[in-house]
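Figure 2 data, in text form.
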Amino acid sequence: MPERFVSPAETVVGSGAVDSVGDRMADRGSRALVLATSGVFDRFGQRVRDSLTDAGIETAVFDEVRPDPTVANVEAAHELYREADCDCLVTLGGGSPIDTGKAVGVVAANGGEIREYATDRAGYEGVPEQIPPLCAV
């Protein structure tokens, strides 16, 4: 049986790519949750926020992503996503922010708790609704 392979719709690389986040997300949302570890956010976060703001996108920041994020970490990020009425996600850094962003997106689009999707409904078929737009930087 063939497997489904999912890849990004667009990949941007090179000098200045971080400053183009707002342009890339402008038609994908109006309120972004930016997720990062505190160290990465301290280094690049303001540039990402400035790019999003310049594109007319409001931001909320969750800079408490932990290495190997926990369920509690995902729940805290999702709570901010919900409270800030976000409609898209921007992850800044490596695998942990990306994993956290995807997990927040799954819960935001499908409800419930993330643990349900990790153990009971894993795989593409177990997540019925597509996550909100996500940009991984």
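Caption note: DSSP finds five helices and four strands in the chain.
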